[in-house]
Amino acid sequence: MAEAVVSVVLESVRDFTIQEAKFLSGVSRQVEAAQTELEFMQGFLKDADARQGQDTRVQICVAKIRDAAYDLEDIIETYGLKVDSKKKKRGLKNVLKRFACIFKEGVDVHMIAAEIENITTKISALRSNLQSYNIKEIRDRDSGGGESSLQLHERLRRSYSHVVERDVVGLESNVEELVVHLVKDENRHQVVSVWGMGGLGKTTLARKVYHHKKVRQHFLSFAWVCISQRFQVRNVWERILIELTSATKEPKQEIKDMTDDEIAKKLFCVMEEMRCLVILDDIWSIETWNLLKVAFPNVETESTILLTTRNQAVASLPNRNVFLHKLQPLNENESWELLVKKAIPARAEIDLGMYIKKKDLGMKMLQHCKGLPLAIIVLAGVLARKNSIREWVRVYENVREYINRGIGHEEEYEGVSRVLALSYDDLPYYLKPCFLYLSYYPEDCIISVSTLTKLWVAEGLIFLRQQGHGSEKTMEDIARDCLSELVERCLVQVGTSGSTGTIKDCRIHDLIRDMCLLKAKDESFLQINYSLQENTSSVTAQASQLGKIRRLAIYVDEKADRLVSSRDETNGHVRSLLFFGLREWRPKSEKGLLSPLKDFKVLRVLKVEGLRARRVELPSEIGNMVHLRFLSVRRSEIKTFPSSLGNLVCLQTLDFRVSSYIDMVIPNVIKKMKQLRHLYLPWNYRAKGKLELSTLGHLQTLHNLSSEYCDLKDVGRLTNLRKLKIRVLGSLQNLEEILKSTSSTLNRIRSLIVKNDTNSGEEQAMQIVSSCPGIYKLTLDGPIAELPKELHNYPNLTKLVLWSCGLKEDQMGILEKLPNLTNLKLFEKPFEENTKILVFSRGGFPSLEFLHVSRMDQITELRVEKGAMPRLCQLCIQFCSGLTTLPDGLRYLIYLKELTIRWMCRELHRRIEEDGEDFYKIQHVPCLLIGEPLD
């Protein structure tokens, strides 16, 4: 990962020197020399990264290179920020003080220049060391160096068509589905792709299909090739052609004597003329396919290619007629069946009582496998040698180690982590740190994509150079592209998606996380501390790791008596500090709880969310942490907004959504944070005068803009604003005139939340909505009797949330005409209190897919007419105590896949039971989620 670190640092230094060149004039020569040395170093790091596991000297050298790169970045940025700060202050000083300041600045320049030169010399010496260890310079990212552990690993994992596994479980339906697509004569597919994460059994499935009786009868010629990560195109073509033509000695030699063009043409003709099945096992990248495809027919033929891959981009192959088959994990019963076949082959010889105990232990251990066949086989390989219950208990106590590392039977099975690590090794350099960042999060954690992408940007892992030339994507857009690529490579799982198709949250498989943690430790990427007490050192989890601690995650539990260890020598190097578990933690002492944060001099990311201590203040020293890009104290009970926060001129994300009951005074210092991209203000706050926000030209998100304490005219200068939550407090003077002057900005708003906290602001709230015709998402919270009449003409509106609006009953007519609305949420009296019946008319809501109805106690009847909501696939009804029956029209919703009923009256719950009067209305729905009734 040193290649990734050096590349990221180079990008960061380039960006900083371009943006802040005027502040680096005194050290520009030294900075340029350091950049040049890092560029030279890049060529050696690909080979060095691959060789770390073979040579401890290389591993130590790589660790020192990472540290030197990070130190260089810190020094350059610190100096630039100091010079910037001094020049701003100089205008306030008299002439004598001004000369003193210039003299001191000159001393600083000399010292900084010397430090940069020292680091440059160190990097140059480290490069010489690498060369003396026989590390080769590799400029072509795809070319290979010397023999590496990766190449050896590839040879060990090479698949062969003649090896047919016994004891295969859970693939029967997969085999049958693929066979149908391979042997059919009409609507055939040129390519059949099997896609899934490592260890799911893609190769096993391909072998079963390859040897299936119907497949053997249908095709005339067969070829199987395993594609390594360091394959040669010529060799692959040769092997396929030799197998398809069953070439003997002389024809083989003729094939070997052909030129590349001749062999590609010959293979093309053979597949065009004969009915061939070619298996390409384990293709890693779309570039691999692009190199191979010129020898495969791109016209309609009777030949088919079946490929297996971990990469969705490969599986989906543009410009080819492809059938995509995604392989799923085994269920609980299948997992146990596979474990029994591998670990307990002679069940009849086992005492029944022992078998029951082994099954109980086995089912508990299988929870760690999460249905991954490779993990189950590795576990079974260990257990097959263990006969007694005591031995099974010992394996259970360390089951994760056995599964991940494959300890105890290395001669037969690899550990799961090593197999899954191939997916990590195949990542391009810019994705590796993004993936390792996921190791921050606890097991089974639901990861907010919005937060994750902001963290990646703040850490400097995302650069505008990653986008195509001429693109208008933001860094957050590029970060989402990186996440999508990790999803396509089966390293990240999608949780839920938004109304516009974007990923809202994600997670990682437990075994992927274990591999991620191992890689993060090996690469000194971050350290995790699980508890902090006075008598323990903060360096508890990874004391033996190489390199300085740059990123720190602290999992706080009930044993902890503080947040961070003060006076720890590692604190001065930490760039990122994230806390988890604060919502469940109650500190013994709240005094000075956050004071040790001042020791983190180069911190870029600070995430202290959910801190429930009642007398905690954010120390004023936080203003000295000038490197901060990301600061979040969301859901914490912090009562002050220090004016020193204005010093954080690099801040990109400020999330101050503290507990809602806190009434906070905010000084007018946010205007100084000119790099802000995302600003989340508290729910309750006051200001002395108006908060000035017009200087925040990079702002994309503005949450809780107060009409009372902010000047709405400032919004007009926020030309990058895309998400706005505005709180209407009191009467707004000259609103129409203000909205006209800000129209160019409001036209760009994509997500709008309007909270009306007055009884007289209905019209003004609607004026704001009317000024944002480009919105995709709209939330209206508070009294609003009527919707804008032009709402149905909003071309992009896909999601609408109505909360306590008190709309007139006839407003349903406007809602149901929204042509592109896919998501509608109705909460807590969205209509007038006397509205008893909610009607979904025939032809209404033509595009609606998700409907959520909650806390509408006044509703006594729901009506769904035939032809209403024809595309509805998810419906949730909860906390509607007045409803005693479900609408008959639900049976017309043929696309309804999921129905959730929770916290409704007991009468309704009784009626929707399988023998109840209303069950016929919902019996066609595949997924019924019925929760507890109201008491």
From TrEMBL:
InterPro entries: Apaf_helical (IPR042197), Disease_R_plants (IPR044974), LRR_dom_sf (IPR032675), LRR_R13L4/SHOC2-like (IPR055414), NB-ARC (IPR002182), P-loop_NTPase (IPR027417), RX-like_CC (IPR038005), Rx_N (IPR041118). Residues 589-910 form the Disease resistance R13L4/SHOC-2-like LRR domain. One of its GO terms (biological process) is response to other organism. Residues 441-515 form the Disease resistance protein winged helix domain. Residues 172-348 form the NB-ARC domain. One of its GO terms (molecular function) is ADP binding. Keywords: Nucleotide-binding, Plant defense, Repeat. Residues 5-92 form the Disease resistance N-terminal domain. This is AAA+ ATPase domain-containing protein. It comes from Prunus persica.
